[in-house]
Specification:
422 residues; mainly beta; Immunoglobulin-like; 4 domains; seven-stranded mixed sheet; five-stranded mixed sheet; 5% helix; rod-shaped; disordered C terminus; Ig_sub; transmembrane signaling receptor activity; signal
Length: 422
């Protein structure tokens, strides 16, 4: 017959400093009798003594010291011992309070972004080991912070943490309050024509195309104290960490991977219009100098062509939607009063070398625009527009301008259509 095994129960597994926990040991079947119970604590490596606990009865003690406890029973002469019980860890709760923080703490996190979930314990210089609890698919490692380099829906969930003293593993904090992380797979889309935001983005130098290793500054403007510059790259990835962010300005030393759509987002969730940045990989070829933001109808605009070392002053050919529109000795294309028909792709050619194409958008003069437009009409045709834009994107793979830019009158988010007056 196998030996019986002792069973250990605790009325709690943690208690505050100055508190206690009651432990009860028993042997099955409960009808058996005559057992004397022996108590053990891992830290002291032996029997629990009267100075370590209060012996309430033969099978029950009260302890006020954290540690890992177990018990066994014995009876008869010579003593017949049961198997040891499973051990129970008892922790002392210290007063230090952990807090879970998200960095950056933005109102919305999108698939592909980088975010850090951090456990902070305030008070004293104690060194801690960390434990996490979450209902997300992926559990964080037991470290002070969990850096998610490419967020996905698997990271969505509630997170809480606690600390355990390195110097005394049975002293622990309480669990922190839970913090919810929600990763959205749906991206807000803003066309540059959307200018009615309290946030704006300026680009210096003010042009779409740049050479590799150019210094480009993206500055967020508006009455906000916290900013991030977001980037939607050619390969469809969304980024929110500017490597060189100073205040409200993101500084880029351009490489081919910086070809993308950029926009600003404030800490309270305000978005600027989006702009295209295209980086010319051919160091010997020209770039088109064209405005980043939409040009207002009736305004004048000048397009020019530039090499890495100098602006080209003459003998430049200009194309609009692949149609040659100027081939004389001038170095600039000047449009004195822009109209909607001037919108489209432009490129320049010099000494047989062509620049990349860039899209120049034309917006209506706000003084003559309607105050509101019919939401239902736009929502009704939006699906058709999207399909046409996607088709257009597929047929212009040589262009370094995203279909992202072509969305004009509406923002699509979570299958809703929101009308913006122009």
């Amino acid at each position: 017959v196998d030996k019986p095994k002792a069973k250990l129960r605790a009325d709690n597994t943690a208690f505050p400093v100055g508190g206690s926990v009651t432990l009860t040991c028993s042997v099955n079947p409960s009808s058996s009798s005559g057992w004397k119970y022996y108590w053990y604590i891992e830290d002291s490596g032996g029997l629990v003594s009267p100075r370590d606990a209060v012996f309430l009865s033969n099978g029950q003690i009260r302890v006020s010291q954290g540690g890992r406890y177990w018990c066994k029973g014995g009876r008869g002469q010579p003593v017949y011992y049961t198997e040891d019980s499973e051990s129970v860890r008892i922790d002392t709760i210290v007063s230090n309070r952990p807090v879970v923080t998200l960095y950056p703490n933005w109102s919305e996190i999108y698939r592909g972004e980088t975010i850090t979930v951090r456990c902070e314990i305030h008070g004293g210089d104690t060194e801690w080991d960390y434990e996490w609890e979450t209902n997300s698919t992926i559990k964080p490692p037991n470290q002070t912070e969990y850096r998610i380099r490419s967020a996905s829906s698997s990271n969505s969930g509630n997170y809480r943490c606690k600390g355990r003293m390195k110097s005394s593993q049975h002293k622990t904090t309480e669990w922190s309050d839970s913090v919810t992380l929600t990763v959205s797979s749906e991206l807000k889309i803003f066309h540059p024509d959307y200018v009615h935001s309290a946030a704006s983005l300026t680009v210096s130098p003010d042009r779409v195309q740049h050479f590799t290793s150019d210094s480009v500054s993206l500055t967020c403007e508006g009455n906000f104290t916290e900013w991030r510059v977001r980037k939607f790259s050619e390969d469809g990835r969304l980024y929110s960490d500017c490597r060189r962010m100073t205040g409200s300005t993101c500084n880029i030393y351009t490489s081919k991977s910086d070809t993308a759509v950029y926009w600003c987002e404030s800490g309270s969730g305000e978005f600027s219009s989006a702009v295209n940045i295209t980086v010319q990989n051919d160091g010997n070829g020209p770039i088109l100098v064209s405005p980043v933001h939409p040009v207002t109808e009736g305004a004048s605009v000048s397009l020019s062509c530039s090499l890495r070392t100098q602006k080209i002053l003459s003998n430049v050919f200009f194309y609009h939607n692949d149609k040659l529109i100027q081939n004389d000795h001038r170095g600039e294309l000047n449009i004195s009063a822009v109209s909607k028909s001037d919108e489209g792709f432009y490129k320049c050619q010099y000494s047989g070398r062509e620049s990349a194409q860039s899209w120049m958008s034309v917006k209506a003069d706000s003084s003559s625009s309607p105050v509101w437009l019919i939401v239902g009409l736009v929502c009704g045709v939006s699906l058709i527009i999207i399909l046409l834009l996607l088709l257009y994107r597929c047929t212009t793979t040589n262009s370094e301008t995203f279909s992202f830019t072509y969305y004009k009158l509406f923002i699509i988010q979570r299958h809703k259509c929101i009308m913006r007056s122009m």
